């Protein structure tokens, strides 16, 4: 996969605990022949056939496959209820409406998230109260969340960022003590565990099934909860406020002229989407296991590059879903700022992304909801430095080495241009 641009030599090296032998070309002028994107959905032939079967079945919109996806995810998480919709963003919208978010109500959560959540809050007239995150995990702490809760707080929405869980036990205790709702933004965290429990168990959480996520329905999301009344409200709002959908009517012989209970939206997931995620769900653990191997290899290799630093893992017991491989590009140490770093990697056929520009730094928020300088110091520091490197289960170990070698080559101050991990043979 690596093309020589100028004379170079290869070295046989062994890589730390992996103990694998690879040819590692590590001097100048090398690049991949093919572009390595930062993500790629793990779609198998069986997944494709499952979608084709739905297309042939005559039932394309919300139907048995959505019901099966909901049941399967609820069972996996040990949750009573699961509700699928067209995206995690749609579910956030439905959830905020279902809990009765009113103009002026406050929503406490990190600015370091995909801006879809703050947007939903704003669109419903609520106020985002952003909290700073830990500088190295990018997770919101129970202390930071507690300090932001006021008498106007309606709900606290922490994010299991990149698939690492926030410290749920104290956050649950805090929300119970303060009498506010707790919604876990688990967009990154399907398959994550916190202290031996799968995310989604014992709380209310929203998973995203967008194509970048560990498993995907094309677009889609699933909310899990033990609160049956909440789930019923969200189901109603999801489909015009009818309280039944086309499948319910067909299955249960309900009147085709069901009446609006309260005005609702049109955010139901079609079966052809649901079946794609359903087909991938049995592979979730093995997909995460491969992500964990890739992340371990990245950690070993990046340890030798000053100024390109991975996030720290949480201290509490957990299983990380490794949804994204985020590094911080620190110009003071590596001699290059993030956008130049991303451009240089692109020129070497390596794709990158940013997850995320902090919400309060987006133009509308800067202009309409300005934050005092320094209030979100860790968020700001990371927002201008984070960069997502390629990581998806179909990647080979050599792909990681290609990325690391490209980084070594592009960095002006890379001390590691000729240094490799492991013991030379
Ligand atoms: C942290 C976070 N929350 C919410 C969302 C929204 O997910 P969706 O794209 O399914 O609406 C995303 C999407 O990437 C996300 O990263």
Highlighted features:
Aspartate Aminotransferase, domain 1, 4-stranded mixed β-sheet, Aspartate Aminotransferase, domain 2, disordered C terminus, 425 residues, 4-stranded parallel β-sheet, alpha/beta, 36% helix, binds pyridoxal-5'-phosphate, single chain, 15 helices
CATH superfamily descriptor of the largest domain? Type I PLP-dependent aspartate aminotransferase-like (Major domain)
Beta-strand fraction estimate: 15-25%
> What small ligands are held by the chains?
pyridoxal-5'-phosphate
Number of helices: 15
Quaternary assembly: single chain
Helix content: 25-40%
| Second rung of CATH, namely the architecture of the largest domain | 3-Layer(aba) Sandwich
Give the radius of gyration: 23 Å
Adjacency order of strands in the biggest sheet: 5-14-13-10
- Per CATH, the class of the largest domain reads Alpha Beta
Uncertain spans:
4-28, 416-425
Give the class from helix and strand content and strand pairing: alpha/beta
Alpha-carbon distance between the two ends: 23 Å
Whole-number mean pLDDT:
90
Q: Count the strands?
A: 18
